[in-house]
Amino acid sequence: MSTFKQISSDEPIAEVIKAAFDTDLPVEGGWGYSKALATTFKENPQKLPIPQLEHMLASMRAYLEMNMTLPKEERYGSINVNEQSREELNDSDKLYHNVTYEITAMKEDTYAAFIDEYKEGYGKEGFDMEAHFQRRKEATLTRFENYWFEVSQIS
Question: How far apart are CA 41 and CA 27, in angstroms?
């Protein structure tokens, strides 16, 4: 199983998000690897549901860890992030969410080969779709990651 390096940057998290994803998010703090490094939402101008905001940040972190910070031959694609559980904690007048996400992904080159195989074989005699999807499933990496959010200012 692959291990991915935690994101470390001297730049404020909002600036990294802006540079990497061309998105302005009113956040500060860390990348949520612990309560001490929680991502803090300063506001919610679009009034999105908090779990949706949290999912967006978790997806960005996963993409940075598994794609953007890796050499081309080690990058993952088809990255999917799905919430598995959440815990709410009150600590010193601050409200935290500790959310566990299941993250699935496949090496980019492997994923591209499966897509090409599917396009070429779909609808043709002899193409074993069940075997194709079983091999895709076997080539998929699954990891579980916690992400800490401090949501006191927007709750």
Answer: 5
| Residue 40 parent element (H or E) | strand 39-41
> Given CA atoms 26, 29, 33, 34 in this order, what sign does their dihedral have?
negative
Q: Do 37 and 29 contact (CB within 8 A), yes or no?
A: yes
Quick: pLDDT tens for 18-70: 999 999 999 999 999 999 999 999 998 888 999 999 999 999 999 999 999 99
Instruction: Read off the pTM.
Output: 0.89
- Give residue for tokens 């566990």: 100
3-state SS class at 68: helix
From the CB of residue 130, how many other CB atoms can be counted at a distance below 10 Å?
A: 7
Q: What are the Cα distances from residue 79, in Å, to 7, 61, 63, 153? A: 17, 11, 7, 30
Which tokens go with 11?
A: 């730049």
Alpha-carbon distance of 3 to 18, in angstroms, equals 26
